[in-house]
Amino acid sequence: MLDLIKKIRSIHVMVVVVLLLIGTVIKFSPWQNAGKSGKLIAWDVTSYYAYLPATFIEKDIRLTFVEKDSTFYHEHQMYWPETAPNGSKVIKTTMGLSFLYSPFFFVADAIDDDSSKARGFSETFEFWLVISSLFFTILGAIFLRSFLLKHFTDHVVSLTLISIYFGTNLFYYITVEPLMPHAYNFFLISLFLYFTDRWHNCSTFRNSLVIGLTLGLITLIRPVNGVVLLFFLTYQLEGITKFKNRLKLFYEKLPLLLVISLAAMLMLLPQLIYWKSLTGQFIYNSYSGEQFFFTNPHIIDGLFSYRKGWLLYTPIMIFGLIGLGLSIKNRISSLIVLVPTVYIMFSWWNWWYGGSFGCRPIIDFYPILAIGLGSLLSKALETKWSKFSTLSIFGLLICFNLFQTLQKKSDAIHWESMTKEAYWHNFLHRYPQPGYQEKLHHPDIEKAKQGFDEY
């Protein structure tokens, strides 16, 4: 059996993974809730998406049309703008995700018979946006596989892909809430890792341009994700001698580093122009009343709590973290990204990130953690006993993740109010059990915004 697993080719595994993901999306058909409770274009996605219908359907990026019937737009979760000090209506999130939505939005706009009524929020639009998520999921799998093959054997890459796509909450954000940014960011960071490796082996103008544009788009979707630049700067850095050589390399390649910088700025320019035209400022904080509390990070809660602990709801990533310690060449570059990312992530006032399954912002960095999984699997497959035990554990954790995905979809795992009592009350139950609601503890939003514990 183990020898058979070793013969499986990663290209075949990738195709099967993609087909299973597509099949699951078709089974769930999340776009069918358009215009109803549970629709995809809602909450955060409303803001990520708002740039497109406002610009190309309403022809009014200033959102003055919202003021004519603000109750209608608010109740239907179509636009939730913030009001700037000068009175302008500003879309809360940055526009990066709209760039990736846009080709599929234009297809939907061209074929939707109900566009004049739904104004860009019909089932047709949701369907084509789901197609966009699947499209970038496929690209993410292609580039992640290509990157991992530069570091691991083909069968290790196969097992890593299976673990990432089915053993983590990435599966949930591809199949249940596909319009959230995580599948898109997963693709972009996979692309960034792939071209980082190419650049360090072949520093060309083309590779520099792609890295810069990708870095800019990563930052435009979620500004704090720009920390991934550190991976490029420290890629395969092993010691002080390599550090000196790296500085020498960057000095020699200064023109190409300038290309990277200018390309990244080019991607950010539309956002700066948008903010300047509406608020009078090139840099505008649209998250009024929300902030980071860097002196009171909730790192332990973010990693282990029943409310939203990353490693509780995605335990397979414990092995990803362990594996990073085994990755000699990529240990520094991975940890120098992940350590500040975790600190910043859990310093946000809403460290549990609202309604979500597990810790969702860390999903963006799973391509880096795939290095850790690959390193651990490489070591584990060296002996027959460790092969069997590791594959058994991984198999159980993948099944556990898939079951918890169904629990979350059925509300047996609450989106933000889980407690120890509630978790174990529904443990291994697909649907919520009687008495479950009484065991939940809803967060105190106002306390959290002031930097206090949400309990």
Automatic annotation (TrEMBL):
Q: Which UniProt keywords apply?
A: Membrane, Transmembrane, Transmembrane helix
Transmembrane residue ranges = 12-31, 125-144, 156-174, 209-233, 254-275, 310-328, 335-353, 365-381, 388-406
Superkingdom: Bacteria
* Protein name, per record: Glycosyltransferase RgtA/B/C/D-like domain-containing protein
Q: Which organism is it from?
A: Parvicella tangerina
